[in-house]
Amino acid sequence: MDRLDLHAYVDGEATRDERRQYEADLADDLQARAEVANIHALKALVARGVTSSEEPAAWRSCCRRLDELDRTKRIEGFVGRYSWALCAVFMFVILVGGVIKRGNPSVVRTGEAAGYVSSMVGGFSRAPQDAANRQAWMNEKLGVVQSLVQPDRLEVLDAAEKVDENGRRVACFRLADSRGLLALLVVTNANEVEGVRPMDDSLCAGSMGDANCVVWSQSNISFFLIGPRDHDELARIAQTIRKQ
Amino acid sequence: MLWGRRNTREAFERQAEKVFPSVFGTALRLTRSREEAEDLAQEAIVRAYEAFDRFDGTNFKAWILRIVTNLYINKYRQRQRGPQLNSLDEEGVVEPMAGEDEIPDRILFDNLVGAEVEEALGKVPEDFRIAVLLSDVEGLSYQEIADATGVPIGTVRSRLARGRAILRKHLMEYARREGYLKQGANE
């Protein structure tokens, strides 16, 4: 008898016809019968001798992994189902935040400030040379702001002023020191400037076109000191003209 | 949908916990390392859970042991440290059948215990050992073993016969060493 057939016979893998044939062959083959008995004995030994592996700790560890998998799938499911809604909510929050900020009349952006300066180009009036008229002229230009700043610590060349479409009063002074020209822009009804980064507790740094600027706000008025200098130098000059 | 997932989890856990001793035991006998067996068993359980919706509902144990075996063959076999017991030539010499006047194995095997069997199994080359484990330890059919190992049924039959013959040879050597069998008695 074929050896593999003996194994198939013992393992119950033979068809009914094959079993009948094998049993007929085994009846006449003592050696094959002995081999069948040995295969049975070996199978029984392996089944008996190989111990069952009860591993409660390993099973608990598997359950924890399945818990993590379930948790991940729940989150993925939630995000997947509501991702469009979540995106819409985030977009709405960003838009509303932007509108609120843009609509806030007391915020002035550096781009806006640059617009004020360029719009006043043709409207500058020269500062009077004599001291008495000069002081009156300065008081008129500064108005209430004169308690906060004294641009005449430097040489004041000329100044311009305007009222924008929102009723905000703006004045611009062109100044000079030993190193060159500067500009001081005064914007009323503005207690916050956008587009600048903090330098210290009171001053912020930004840029306007090719020039740097240092910005500070006080009593709902924002001041921009503008010039082709680095921020530290502008900050030092700002401290000289500020009335703290 | 949450309730559906919970039901799936419960159904899976009920079946998996019942067969986990077989899963872990097979993993242990394949990897011969407790640490790797834990990793292999855990990964097999996770893979089975992820594929549970594709289970056809027939033999859960055979299905999950197929996952264990495939994982072992594809991943863990490459990482095994130490000398690999490579499978011998599939068509190698087949040991002769027992003689009709030899001492039956069942009498010799009465003296053997689990540790000796496990040790002898460990010496059987891997492909043959997998066939013996899945058939004689886990009770899988030839077709189920063929599906689990990705080989034809004919190969399963010859690996099983070879594996058992080699296992028997190692057990006989042990029996001889321990004096259960006189030298030359079964040759």
The helix content of chain B is: 55-70%
Run of helices and strands of chain B: HHHHHHHH
Structural class of chain A: alpha+beta
Oligomer: heterodimer
| Structure class of chain B | mainly alpha
Low-pLDDT regions of chain B: 81-91
Unreliable sequence segments of chain A: none
Describe the protein's topology:
The complex is a heterodimer of chains A (244) and B (187).
Chain A: H1 3-10, H2 16-27, H3 30-49, H4 56-103, E1 107-109, H5 110-119, E2 125-126, H6 131-142, E3 155-163, E4 169-177, E5 180-188, E6 192-194, E7 197-198, E8 204-208, E9 211-218, E10 221-227, H7 231-241
Parallel strand pairs in A: 1-6
Antiparallel strand pairs in A: 2-3, 3-4, 4-5, 5-10, 7-8, 8-9, 9-10
Chain B: H1 2-31, H2 34-50, H3 60-79, H4 105-109, H5 114-122, H6 126-137, H7 142-149, H8 153-177
List keywords for this structure.
heterodimer, A: 244 residues, alpha+beta, eight-stranded antiparallel β-sheet, two-stranded parallel ribbon, 7 helices, 10 strands, B: 187 residues, 8 helices, elongated
